[in-house]
Amino acid sequence: MKPDKDCARGLAQLEGFLLWNAEVERARRQAHRFTGQLPWLTTAQREDVERVFVAERVTASRESLTRVRDRADELRAEYAGRYARLRARCVAVSAGAMGAAACLGTALALVLR
User: Fold this and answer.
1) 3-state SS of the chain: helix, strand, coil percent to 5?
2) Going by C-beta distance under 8 Å and a sequence separation of 6 or more, which residues neighbour residue 49?
3) Averaged over 72-78, what is the pLDDT?
């Protein structure tokens, strides 16, 4: 693989890592804010609730990201197919136009002799 592609892939992985860690941290803050509204919880209960809250939030985020990734893959494949068909049509039209122009030029040359 080229160094540029390796670098781009590494940066994309780093970005994904940082975004995921930010999502987990956001879940932790929300869990802490949630348990702050429940002053009767003991410390152990608060920790358990926060742990479950974070786990549920992280699972929901993972499922959501997986759905988005899968849909992006579907769209990428769909648009790649459309692009290939459009490109083939453009090549065919161009070849047809060139052929028609060549035939017209030949016909004019024969007529004008």
Assistant:
1) 90, 0, 10
2) 31, 34, 35, 38, 41
3) 96
39: its two tokens: 């002053």
The predicted model scores a pTM of 0.68
User: For the chain, what is the domain count?
Assistant: 1
User: CA-to-CA distance for 30 and 54, rounded, in angstroms?
Assistant: 8
d(CA 93, CA 86): 10
DSSP structure string for 33-47: HHHHT-TTS-HHHHH
AA identity, residue 6: D
What ranges in 3-42 are assigned the alpha helix state H? 3-36
**Distance between CA atoms of residues 93 and 70, nearest Å:** 35
Q: Tokens 């499922």 belong to which residue?
A: 63
Binned at pLDDT 50, 70 and 90, residue 5 comes out as confident
| Residues contacting residue 38 through CB under 8 Å, at least 6 positions apart | 46, 49
pLDDT value of residue 103? 94
Task: Domain of residue 54: give its range.
Answer: 3-111
